[in-house]
Design brief:
The structure is a homotetramer of 341-residue chains. The first copy, chain A, is of the alpha/beta class and 341 residues long. Chain A is 30% helix and 20% strand. The first copy, chain A, has 2 domains: 159 residues, Rossmann fold, CATH 3.40.50.720; 160 residues, Dihydrodipicolinate Reductase, domain 2 (2-Layer Sandwich). In chain A, strand 4, helix 3 and strand 5 form a beta-alpha-beta unit. In chain A, helix 1 crosses helix 11, helix 6 runs parallel beside helix 11 and helix 7 runs parallel beside helix 9. The longest helix of chain A has 15 residues.
């Protein structure tokens, strides 16, 4: 039984980690850090977890990390790097923030607006897109969870870029995301009255920070710079990301490449050709559904990927990586089906 | 490993059973019956289950029940009694329909508008409100799942009636229910455009059939006829029931009685006095949250109970009962926390 | 053409006033006050109003009230009394806050937690439930808009109390309200991720401030103290209130009394006996639908009233009152049908 | 005062017409046709219209068209052409179906799967995109309402194609639409439990019939065949379309062209450069908001258009056209602001 700490337990990704670990046969939640809500119980902060026997929320300083086997950091960006820099250098860590996703410190500075405060950790971190970094993750001490949008887009595109199947200069990711990805922060545009019953785009024109991950990963695969277009939209739904990806390439070959690449992946489900996924059908689960359709214009294809931003897009991915790092069965506590309706 | 059949697998309660059993360590789904969709795969009917290795949907006639250890019937009312009457008399059955909830055949005829077609089975059936019929359920061959609204109201009220703590002639249950309780049927008022963004009452004035269960159970506990008022409202949400129950009785005594009655119940959580439950905090789970508050008018109390109609209100309850009938741990595959947000 | 000022134009009731007045043939918006957003345009604050030619938001001090014929105050509670105390004593004012609803200063102090800062204005104010204070409103200088929940409950109950048709000691108002009634404030429980997909009660047990209005009005009608039970619930919808009112009284007489009382009211629609209203069917409009049903228990009735909290419950009511105060047709700019679906 | 008939009054676009015409100073609803619900009152079919004094629903045969000045046909596709072929040839008609949108009978046969049954009417019909066919509409007897998606995409693109500002071979319209566009039909995927809380694409790959309108109109403007890519997605919202359009062209020139083209249009609002529209901000109104942003990749732009499918996308457009056909002020009864929140 491994003893687990979760830092940032009062946010949605922290709560999602607890939800998943609650039925994990080999993990025990030993410490919950949440500086701003220290002293409260989880049932005060998240009443849906009230039946669980959980430790009280404490400040991070109060945690004895020598008794911890693995630590999840679900802290805000920038905070995370400071906290992790101060943790024992032998502690296994899965970070869910954006702080360690970029390998290039200049790219980090450009996209996140300042120098990184823990460059040594950044150098050590492994990018946490499980299916593509599995071996590195197994050996890693520090794994950087991917952006939820970045994961969705990469599941749709990596095998196509790797296979040379699409025009690298004409990739458009039109993405729709549920609101929980924005966290539990008090912003006017996240109010029910503002967000429900409609949709809008944000970060239009290439300003969303998850583009940094697309640039890093796609360019590395292609061996040349690849820049995609990416427009996220906010959905009136709590969970779920749907990425509609427009590419120039043969639909049959594209479908085949995805099907082959993910044939033995437990969580990546490629639908029969022409079928489309729905975020409703992966809700609350670690599964990702991917569909491919050919356009009426020859040589063009639409790839659509759906996953739950809180599960496969962050906390589920984090647990999948933690399982690998602890040499456990990769799918442990992650195979529960989606909740529908 | 027990072999399980589910009849009526193409409805929401059928799908919910599969979702729960998918992670059950001692059950294996051996047959899925759905007459109208026989020949289809579950991934056609419920794409959220596509990753599971499930048998194809078949007609009920095609199922070899001699190989089945326990059968869930998630069929429509009236159909259920006909099907069950024809099943082997030794087969363990958990029925999720209304057909075997009422012990009195006249009450059945009155509320359901006709004579019962399987009176011998009706006589044999045990009412499936687990916490109050646990011993009978363990020994039962046929268990009748309760109405989802009926379960919610009973969790709020049974200990109060049993304890003589409230005025039996002045009980009002104002209930709010999500739409999945109405099933996957094509009715105009269940369309998104009709149902979202508002609420309305239905079955007003004492016409909802779940009243028959309240009458039967509460009268039996009290040893005299008890008639409650019950008004359900349809919520623009998919899952969840909130029953706001108005009673005349001392709030402290009422809270104490509920807390004591459910002290060792794994799924019934009585909140600290004055706290209120939310359907969002039990969503997708088998937990029921119950809160008690005193009114400003002395001697009056409000008891509020929340559960998920598809889980604790039907399929979760059914699985809890099946665990008992198969002599398994009662909570097996039912302890996953709610999905929030 | 009357020149209108709106103070508190950056909140939902302010925006709703603008929406309604935009098509008013006899009113022109001359000034918009919003201290915290002064200097901004309405299209920044409420983009749905961008096509209108509106004055810029200014501080209240910047408004020349000598050029204003009528002023709407849509300010927060407590702020409103301070602002109104400082306005010209001849200015016609419709206040939408809670500050002038209670005629008794002790009741005010008890429910709102402190002494009133403008007792002379309080003494002068007329309670703005149009249909019952029409003559006083016509002559008033200062009209106090009612609570939105308070309006809904009163439409269901006033004729029944006046007619001596119900037991005054056993009245229960179980109310469901959309979230816009809580305003545009940044509170965690108003976030989409927290509020959508479920419901919960709040202010349980007789603590909601709208009870002060029920107490004041119902006691005045009855000529004796009347205390109702009142439990509001938060709905996952933006607009709409549904009040389910449980009374002891003959359903036929109750229906008749409501039908007679409102026979010539343009906005109060009593449905045929046994029909139930829905908040979806009054959305965005100034109409209120009321239904009456008899319970299976003799001598008990359920009265259900539905209105839009932002329209008939606040800004629509305010405009209706302003029309009266300016000697205009009462229904002017208020007869647009609800928006459905 | 003009006497108006509405055929197909029991659907959403029929109800929306009534909602708008209810406050029209120069129109009176004289007849409501709805074959399947003939004999019912509108308040039975659409309770939100119960306060209106409307004629009873009748069969189309029962209507005396000699007393009608203008007839709206809100009938299903295919039905509409049969009905209109049988109406008096002098009757002014605004058709909301797809039957008369395509000028080329072969294109009609291809996209709609069969020969047209009223080719003479088809030849006579004017395409109802008001801002671009205003003069023809004024003189027309029969106006064909556009597809709601087709209108949205055209508002974003027509001035760009006309101005030669974009690459005609690389246009992608990723569109998100509310569910009311699918009408009041009983389909499983339109149920609240199926549609809420998520999104999916449909008609992927160039199969949606509104493409026929894009092809017809864009090719006519360009003077050469133009084929766009178009992927609609179903939103968990009742009203609203958001079209995110990806083009290759200079953002500044594109914004300028749209701003100039719509400078004097009352309903088409081009936002300041870089701002994005939201469907929430046009809800229930006849306004269309259009925003332009440049991508980080030089020479690429994103144009986003939002309108309400039931209003500007169908019934509001139809009324705008009817106003023109009757020589009334074009904006009459159409200037009410959107309903937000």
């Amino acid at each position: 039984m491994y003893d687990i700490a979760i830092l940032g337990a009062s946010g949605y990704t922290g709560a999602e980690l607890i939800r998943l670990i609650a039925v994990h046969p080999e993990m025990r939640i030993a410490a919950l850090g949440a500086n701003s809500k220290a002293g409260q119980s989880m049932s005060d902060v998240f009443p849906h977890l009230r039946h669980l026997d959980l430790p009280e929320l404490v400040t991070i300083d109060e945690i004895d990390f020598s008794a911890i086997d693995l630590c999840f950091c679900a802290l805000p960006h920038a905070t995370s790097q400071e906290v992790i820099a101060a943790l024992p250098k032998t502690l296994k860590i899965v970070d869910l923030s954006a702080d360690f996703r970029l390998r290039d410190s200049e790219a980090y500075a450009k996209w996140y607006g300042g120098a990184h405060a823990a460059l040594d950790c950044q150098a050590e971190a492994v990018y946490g897109l499980t299916e593509f970094y599995r071996d590195e993750i197994r050996r890693a001490r520090l794994v950087a969870g991917t952006g939820c949008n970045a994961a969705t887009g990469q599941y749709a595109l990596r095998p196509l870029i790797a296979g040379g199947l699409i025009d690298l200069d004409d990739i458009i990711i039109d993405l729709k995301t549920g609101v929980s990805g924005a966290g539990r922060s008090l912003k006017e545009n996240l109010l029910h009255a503002e967000l429900s019953e409609g949709t809008h785009a944000y970060g239009v024109g290439g300003t969303h920070r998850h583009l940094a991950e697309f640039d890093q990963e796609f360019s590395a695969i292609a061996g040349r710079p690849v820049k995609v277009q990416f427009t996220p939209h906010l959905l009136p739904a709590n969970r779920g990301i749907l990425a509609t990806v427009y590419v120039k390439g043969e639909p049959g070959a594209i479908h085949g490449a995805l099907r082959d690449a993910y044939a033995s992946e437990p969580f990546l489900q490629v639908l029969p050709f022409g079928q489309v996924p729905s975020t409703r059908h992966i809700r609350g689960s670690n599964y990702c559904h991917i569909g491919v359709t050919g356009d009426r214009i020859e040589g063009r294809s639409i790839v659509i990927a759906a996953l739950d931003n809180l599960t496969k897009g962050s906390s589920g991915q984090a647990l999948q990586n933690a399982n690998l790092m602890l040499n456990l069965e990769e799918t442990m506590a992650l195979t529960a089906p989606p909740v529908f309706p």
